[in-house]
Design goal:
There is one protein chain. With 146 residues, the protein is an alpha+beta fold. It has helices at residues 6-11, 32-48, 60-68, 96-101, 123-132, and strands at 80-86, 89-94. The protein contains 5 helices and 2 strands; from the N terminus they run αααββαα. β1 (80-86) and β2 form a beta hairpin. α2 packs across α3. It is globular. It starts with 5 loop residues before the first helix and ends in a 14-residue tail after the last helix.
Length: 146
Amino acid sequence: MKEEFPELASSGCLDNVDPAYPSKDGKYAFTQSAVINRGMSALADLRKRPEKVIAVVSHSGFLRTAIGQAQWNNADYRIYDFTESNEYGLILKEWKETEERGGGLGTSFKGKAPIVEGDFPDEKTEKVRQHLGEQIQGEVTKEVPP
């Protein structure tokens, strides 16, 4: 990335970017376990920061499946506090104001939006595709060749 974005590299912004990124395998694979692990890693990094208020900008699918299990419409926001952790990672508690309203703008689905079948390809299928060098971007994850 430093070669592609020299202006950012010279500012130090890319110093902590994993050199493997944007690889689509290993910890960056499009599998349920890899996405959840990235979410827990992101939460752990955020938890260590000294700031009391942090804005996170990301893709709604990542936020739903790996962070807060809430649905996000475009440009919407939600407010969370860290509450505790368990064997799976850190636990967030959404503020009542954004949870009851369906996000800060009130345009998102109210209630939990957990991971459901079809959100991710079967991990075995994904490993075979990665081994064969195939990419799955844009494919419907429920349609897996025999």
